[in-house]
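ugh finaly. both done.
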Amino acid sequence: MRRTPVRLLGRPAATAVAAVVMLGLLTPAPGPSGAESALPAAASESTATVFYYTKTRNWSAYRLHYAADGGSWTTVPGVAMEAACTDWVKQTVDLGGASGLAATFNDGSGVWDNNAGKNYLLGTGAVTVKDGVVAHSDPCADSGTEPEEGGRTASVYYSTATVGWTTTNLHYQPAGGSWTAVPGMGMEPACTGWVRKTVDLGTAASMLAAFNNGNGVWDNNNGVDYTVPAGLTTVKDRKVTAGAADPCAAEAPDTQAPTVPAKLSASADGVSVVLTWDPSTDDRGVTKYQVTRTGGTKGAAVTDVGSTVYSDTGLEARTAYSYTVRAVDATGNVSGASAAATATTGEKPTAPASGKPLGTDPRKDPVYFVLTARFNNGDTTNDRGGSQHEKSGNAANDDPMFRGDFKGLVDKLDYIKGLGMSAVWITPVVLNRSDYDYHGYHGYDFYEVDSRLESAGASYQDLIDAAHAKGMKIYQDVVYNHSSRWGAEGLFTPKAYGVRDTQWSWYYDERNDGFEYDGLSVEPKSGKSYYNGDLWSTAEPSGNTCVNWGTPTGATSPEGYRIYNCQWPSPTSGMFSKAYYHNCWIGNWEGEDSRSCWLHDDLADFNTESTPVQNYLIGAYNKYIDMGVDGFRVDTAVHIPRTTWNRRFLPAIQERVTQQFGTEAAKNFFVFGEVAAFVNDKWNRGSVNHSAQFYTWKERKEYSADDEKAALEMYDYEQQLGTGSQPTSTNAFLEGNTYHAPDHSRFSGMNVIDMRMHMNFGDANNAFSNGKDSDDSYNDATYNVVYVDSHDYGPDKRSERYAGGTDAWAENMSLMWTFRGIPTLYYGSEIEFQAGKKIDCGPTCPLATTGRAYYGAHLAGDVEASDFGTVASASGAVADTLAKPLVKHVQRLNQIRRAVPALQMGQYSTEGITGSMAYKRRYTDTASGTDSFALVTVSGGATYTGIPNGTYKDAVTGDTQVVTGGTLAVAAPGKGNLRVYVLDLGGRNAAPGKIGAAGPYLK
C-alpha cells in the first residue's frame, strides 16, 4: 500500500521543541530549522537496514517478508535475517528509488508477528522494530572509536520509567566537537527502568546531550539540552546527577520470568473472539503479554497486548481458534505459555460496524450535552415510565422518564449543528436497571445498549454514523466506578430474598425463566417492562454470603410490612462478592474510602482493583470504541484511584483506539473525567488525591504491583507531599507573545471538567480569576471542559439550573468561547430552559418541574443547518427557539471561534494587560503553517502592551487598528459583548475581519 514517505528529523533546537504525549505514547516533535537539521530526504536513500528485536520472540529463525513502496511482496515466508548483536537480527533491503517498505516478520514455519493485524510501515536507513514499535537507529552501533590514551569517557544512565519508550537513543555533542548524526547512538538496557551508553569525549570534559525514541520524539528537558560531564551520570525525570552511583550496581540481573498467565478464557462474538485472563506476577513487574493464535487458514499470529483483555477481530467465520498467552517483563523475560483456550467463531456480520472517529483535535469542538432520554422523542413505542411512573407524578404529565431516544436525537442533529456545536455529549447508553434509571448511570449490562433508546433504523451505531456524516462528534458518558444495585450482568448479579406472600406479592413479580430483562420488553405475566422476578429468591442461593438470609428483622416498610434480611442490596450485608464489589458505605468524601465504598444504594461500587472487573469493563467499552465514538466522558472518575486509571483503563482505551483506527485517532480520542470538587480552592480541601488537576498527571514513582496496595501507597505518598509539591506545567501559557510546543510527556491521558470555573460561574469575572489561578497545576488546561451548569449542579453547588439572567448568561458564554478550554452547553441553556428549577429530585417530583424536563416541545418542526452556526431553514416551534437572543449569541460565538485557531487551541497570557477579563492567545503549528494571534476582552475595556506591531482586525465589529508602539487600547464593549482583535499576518494567517452579523450582544 502507498503511504507518505518517512523523513528523519534532525535534532530540533532545544528552545523550539517539546515532545507531545498521549498516555505515554509520544508524538513527533515539530520539524527543525537551521543548518544543523538539514538532512537529505529519505527518498534519496537506496537501502533500509531493518533490525528486529528477538528477546521477546525467542524464535529459532527470523524471516523478513516485505514489499518496497510501489513494488511486489517477497515470496512467503520472505528472506532470512542474520544475527546482528545480542537480541537483534537484521536484513538490508535494496529499495531502488522507493522511499520505504511494508514489512512483516515470521519464524519461517508459519508463526507471524501479527502487529494487531497491520503491516509495519518502515522508512529508509537504519530502522528498528522492537515489540511493535518502529524507530530509527542502529541498535548495534558502538559509541565510536576507542578512547585515546588519557581521553575521557562519559557513562550515561537514562531512566525510561516515565517516557515509556521501547527504544532510546543518545544524541550528543562533546564540548568543542560536533553533534552525532540524528537520532544518535542506540542505548542498551542496563536494568529495570534504565538504559545506558558510554561515549568517548576525547579531551572534552563534558558534552551536551538529548534523548529520543529514534522516531522523532525527544525528551526536550523544557527546551534546554542536558549538560553531561565525564564520569558516571544519571538522568532521571530531567534531573542530572553527576558522579552518581551506578543505579544498577546493587540490582542483580533480572533473570526471573513472570508467572504463567492463569484462567485464560475465550468467547466468540460473530467473527471476533474476546480473551480475558488473570494478570501474571513478576519480581520487577509485568510490562505486556504476548497472545498467540492458531487456527484458520492464515497461520499462527503473535500479538503484543498491554492489558489482560484482548479482542481479536476480523477472523474467519465458523472457524475454531486456539489461544495461549505469555507474560513479558521489562527486561524481556518471557513466561511459559498459559493453558490454551479455544473458541469457534460464528457467522460473519452482514454489515460490519461502520463507525470511525473523526480523529481531529478535540479543542476545535464546542460540546452540547444532552440527557438522551429527555431531549427529543423520535419514537413513542420505546417510551417507558418504570415503577415510579405514578408516584413521581410523571404519569399525570404524560411524561415517561424514558421519552427521548436516538431517533429523536438524529432528527435534531441539525438543530445542534445550527447552534454551532460540533460535539454531542450523551448520557450513558448501556442497559440500565433500577426504579428510576432514565439517566443511564445505573448500568446493568455494560455490553448491551439500552433498548429504550433504540428504534428500527435508529440504533446507537446509526446515531454515531449520522453525527459523523454531519461532521459532528459523539462523546459517550461512561461509568467505571459502579453498576446498578442489581450488579452487572455477565460479571456478578446478586440474589435478594423475596417471598410473594400477602404483603409482598405486589412488589415481587412471579419468576419467568423464559424472559430476559432488556428494559423495553413487557413480561407477559406481570405486564411490566421493569419485571423483577429474576432478582428474588426464597431459596438461599448456592454460595450465598448474605448474613441471616431471609430472617425477619424488627423493621417494617412504610406500609407496615415486615422487612427481612437480604431483602435489599446493601454493601454491608455480605450480599456482594468482594472479588467484584467493595463492601462499605462512604464516610469521608475527601478521604481514602471515597475510592472504595458505595456512594448510594443504587450505585454498587465496583472493586476496580480486581482483574475480573477490569477485564469486564475494558471489554465492554472496547465495543463502543469499535463503533467509532469520538471520546468518553468519565463519570465519578475521582472515586477510582489514579493508579488504576493510569495502569489499566486509560492505556486500554489508547491501545484499542490505536489498534482499530491508528495513532492519530488515539491521540485525539477525547477522555474527560468528572472529578467533583465543590469548593473554590485551587486544591479540594487540601486533598490532592481528590482534586481535578491531579488526574491529568502520571505517577511520579513506582508502587506495588498489586493495584489495591498501589492505590493506598499513592494516596499516602501524595497526601504527605501535599499541594505545594505537586507538578506544574506551562502548557497553557504563552511565553511573552510566543506559542511554545507543549510538553505532554507526563500526561496521564485523562483530561477533566473544569470544576473550579463551574463552581464560580455565578459571576464570569470570578470564574475567570479562579480558572487562571489553577491552570499551572493541570497538565494542559487548554483541554479543560468548561460549563456553567449541568445535570448535577449549578454554580456554587446550587441544586438549581443557572438563573443569573440573560445578560449574565451572555457574558459567561463570551468568556467560555474565547478563553482557554472547551466550551460546553447543557441542553436548553441557550433559551434559559428551566432556569432556577431544581435540577433533580428523583421520583419525589415530576420531571417536568425539574432541570431535566423534556425539551422536545421546543424542537418541534423542521430545521436544516447549512453550516456550523448557520441555519438554512426552520419552521414550527424550533424556529421560535432559534430566534431566542442567547441562541443568536452562541451561533455567532461559534462562527468566530471556528475562524480563529488561537481561540480553539491557543495558549494565553495576561502579561502586560489591564482589564478585568482580558487576555491574549496564540496558536502556532509549523506543520500546517498556522499562526494565529488574538487579543480578547469580555464586557470591559482593556489595554495591551508589549504586543507585536502590525494590523489588528476585530472579529466582532470589523474595526481595524494599526499598532506601531506595541500598545493597543480597547474600549469597553458592554456586558456580554466582547472584542477579538486578530493580528493580520497575511496569506493563510490573514485576519478574517468581521465574522457574522451583529446580534443582541455581539455588536
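ok and the 2nd:
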Amino acid sequence: MTRTLDPGGITEPTVPLPPRLARLMRPELPSLAEEIVTEIRRAIPEYARPLDGPYGQVLRLSVEHNLEAFVDRVGAPPGSPLVLDGPTGSTAGTARRLGQYEAHEGRSMDCLQAAYRIGGQVAWRRIMKVAPRYDLSSAVMSRLADAVFVYMDELAALSLDGYLQAKAHPIAPLDENRRRLLRRLLDGAAAADAEIAELAEEADWTLPAEVTLVAVEPESRCEWTSLDEDVLADLETAEPYLLLPGPFTPGRRAMLETAIPGRRVAVGLTMPPAQAADSLRWARRALGLAIEGVLDGPVTLCEQNMVTLWLLSDPALVEQLTRSRLSILDGMTPGQQDRLTETLRTWLVTRGTAAEIAERLHIHPQTVRYRMRKIEQTFGPELDDPEARFGIEVALRAMSLRSRVPDPPDESRAGQAADAAKPSRAARPQRPSGAARTRQPGDPIAASQPKSAAPRRAGAPQSKVVRHRE
C-alpha cells in the first residue's frame, strides 16, 4: 500500500545536503533518465509501448522532469523553500497527472507505484557507482539516500491524489473513447488499421485522410466549448496536444486563439493518420524553440520553419559540423570571430556586392572588403568547394539561430548553457596543432575595389576570380 504523505513539501533535513552535489549529479541526468525509462519499460509491460507514442512521451518527460527537479532541490541554497517545482512546470502537477492518466486508462496504481520504485532503485545504483569518484562521506551518502526515497514517496503520494481525483470525476464514455483513439493514433505503426477503425467508430469520429497535430504550452487553460466537435485533445498530459482532422486553416487558427487564449501553440505538418506521431514530434520541437525564443509568434507553424527545425534537430551533430567547418577561426579573438562569421554568413546568403553587404550590416563598404580579404585568406579553397561551402553556411545559420536563446537566469548553470546560448564564441573547440591555414592560389572571394581605391600593397595576395560587383 502506498504511504500517504503530506504533498505540501518534503521536510528539510536537519543537516542540508551540500549544494555541490547538484553539480556532480547534473551531468549524469541524461543517461540516467534513459536507463530508468529502459528499465521501467522492460519490467512493466503496460509501459512498453513505442517511445514516440503518447505513453512513451509521458514516461520519458516525467522521468526527465522529476530528475531535474530533484537535482535543483539539492542545489538550492540552504534555507530555500522546498517546493515541488521544476524548470519546465509544476512537479506536483506532473505527478498528479500521472495518477489521473492511470485512472483514465482503467488501471490500478500498481504499475505507477512499481515505476517509482524502479526509478528510485536505478537512481540509487547510479549514485553508488558515481560517489567513489568524489570521495563522498558516509554521512552525506546517508542523507542523500533519505532524500531520494522521501522524494519518490512524495511523488507517489501526489500521483495517488491525482488518481483518486480522477476516479471521483470519471470521464464520460464518449470522451474516454476519443482519448483512447487519440493515443492509439499516435502509436503509429504499432496500431493496426482495423483497430483504429473500430476505435473511431466507438468514438463516433470520422477517420480523415490527413491530420494536423498541435503542441500546446504546458499548464494552459482550455475553454473546451470553443473547440470544434471533431478535435481530439489530451491537455492533461505533461506535454498537452490536439489533433485536428485535415489541414490547419484560418478557421482552425481562430478556434485555437479562442479556446487556448494567451498561450503558445505550435502546429505540426499535415500528415496521413499513420504519421501523426511525426507531426506531433515536429510540433513539440517547434514549441520548445518558440519558448526558448528561437522561433516567433504565439502560433508557430512548422510549415514555415522546416529549415530551422532541420538545422536544430540534432544539436550535437550541428556542433560537430561547426567544429569541423569553423575551427579554423579559433586563433582569433571572439570579436574577430563574430565580425568575420557575420560578414561571411551575409555574403553566403545574399551573394551581394560590398555595398549591399555593408548596407545590411550597417558598416562601411571598405570594411566589408577588408573582412572579405581576411575570410579569403582564412578559408582558402574551401569556398570554391560547393560541399564545403554548404557545410559552412549550414553551420553559420545554425549558430545564428541558436544565438537567439537567452542566457539562463540561474548563474550556477551559466557555464553549462553558454555553448548552446552563444555558440559563436563558446562552441568552437581549440584548433589542433597544424590546423593553421594559408590562402591558396585561385581563392574564390576577391577583394574587389573601385578604380579610385588605394592601390594594393606590395606583396598582398591577389585573387584570380572576382566575386563582388560594384
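summary for the 2nd one i guess: The chain is about 50% helix and 5% strand.
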